Amino acid sequence: MSPTRKPPDPVQDRRGEFALIARHFVRPGSPRSPGVELGIGDDCALLTPSPGHQLAISSDMLVEGRHFFPGVAPEALGHKALAVNLSDLAAMGARPLGFTLALSLPAVDDPWLAAFASGLFALADQHGCPLVGGDTTRGPLNICVTVIGEVLPGRALRRDAAQEGDDIYVSGSIGEARLALEHLRATPWATAALPSLPKHLRDRLERPSPRVALGQALLGVAHAAIDLSDGLAGDLGHILQASGVGAELQLVNWPLTAELKALPEPHRLECLLNGGDDYELLFTAPTSARTAVDQAAKSSATPVHRVGRITQAGGLRLIDATGNARPWTARGYDHFI
Amino acid sequence: MSPTRKPPDPVQDRRGEFALIARHFVRPGSPRSPGVELGIGDDCALLTPSPGHQLAISSDMLVEGRHFFPGVAPEALGHKALAVNLSDLAAMGARPLGFTLALSLPAVDDPWLAAFASGLFALADQHGCPLVGGDTTRGPLNICVTVIGEVLPGRALRRDAAQEGDDIYVSGSIGEARLALEHLRATPWATAALPSLPKHLRDRLERPSPRVALGQALLGVAHAAIDLSDGLAGDLGHILQASGVGAELQLVNWPLTAELKALPEPHRLECLLNGGDDYELLFTAPTSARTAVDQAAKSSATPVHRVGRITQAGGLRLIDATGNARPWTARGYDHFI
Questions:
Q1: CA-nearest residue of chain B to A274?
Q2: Residue ranges of the alpha helices (H) in chain B?
């Protein structure tokens, strides 16, 4: 709506929507990725999934001031907008096929767009996941990515497949993104713990690494999986609820970075259990699969740690170093509270 | 980010994101649509396309104040958010499989959400296109729908397939949405032409009917197709550019509603050619296919009108009632000018 004037050849006009797309989002050689018959520039993109596969689809919307700080580096934002979606594919064990990008921008800012596209495409290339279409419009900054992947029928890692007796694993390390967030917000306990924010912690918040290879390596090995986006306790809670089981988490032997180890326990537990933005995988697997899990971790070059086990229904219990259970109430992130 | 508190059972909490989704977007019986193995509630939705089919994918983002007036009826908005995406599938001749919805809302407004969902699902049901996943967040009102369809390889109606000598057709009637828009904006020529805005014109703007059945009926009949979203002249221009051809449009025998007929010619042509928001199909087909086009129109219960023909390269020419050509410069809608 709000029809306005457009010159006959919009690609020649640096102000126009089509020109913006051509400058920043149409790449030489595209859409010649395997499986992409038609990319940007028609009413729809056309993708060809592998024969006999199911589709895995996820959409995430990132809003300025809520999912990222105003002024965040646009290259990091481009990376993260795709990373959080690839992380959803990873959690199903799906192979990425392609993604769409819908972008609402307050104005055309070419240096910003070039940096955003560079972060976006670097991660897309790393995962062989081409941009196939989307939309641009003027409005408050908002980034909506929809990713499409494929997986063989019956093989996807679902939330409802955890079984009593399963081990619980977490990939990589968690909690750093939350510590970085609190530091950027100048929360007193975070700035007291760290005089300045090390780059590797900030990168954990702004440039998460989706565990796509691990997810696929876990097909046929793991039972249930979820990606850690809203905080471990809450996300594990989704598996427990969907699978009708409970869980015990050991508070020893966690994969902790030095900065997390140095935090007072309440803040450390808050970062670990209610942190959010980790984009690691939490998954369950039978004890008989321990060797297979190790092999999946090795083949995907992704560290994994056994952190607990699935129990009968009964919620989530934390087991401390003395073997005593303590209750824990999940308080993950919610956009509407 | 911005982690805040969430009670243990978010579905019991009327304020929470998961509760919002459960109240308004999870429907009894879902995801038991054909082809949907897993709907809302896991990291990804799982869809099963028909064997041997390609995927057609499109995303559109609607922003308040740009794509719709603040205060527009939420039921109409829910309808339109999906309709504009289904229209993209229609333009490829694809069959809808499902869609995702990412929604940014300034606040949780249950009556608004209930009406929005009702408009959305009524259209989704009409086209057998289930909601399979998405995202909700707090922020300026923004609606991003991604639709997934399927089509047999090599059959999709692309923009680059028009051939010299093809007839040009338009479905339904066009221009009414633009007239309604100008009336709602109180543009003097529109309010001079119509003392009040009839509901059928307003519905053309707010409740477009995507031509999904026609698109599929045209497979193997039409050469090229596009949906009319940005204005006929500009959208036809995309076909001409992609196919390396020109076109002549006859200015007689247009499918005009009475209100359009009554407009002074400059405004009538503006509505017809630069209107936007029509969500009709424009397609080309060889003259040998005229009977087949009629049959496709009949089988899909969608009127179509032959309005011109594809010529050698040379842009777009309008032929008036006296047979004389007049030049026309496309001035479709652009979000960034």
A1: B3
A2: 17-24, 74-92, 110-126, 176-184, 188-193, 199-206, 212-217, 232-243, 258-261, 265-274, 290-299
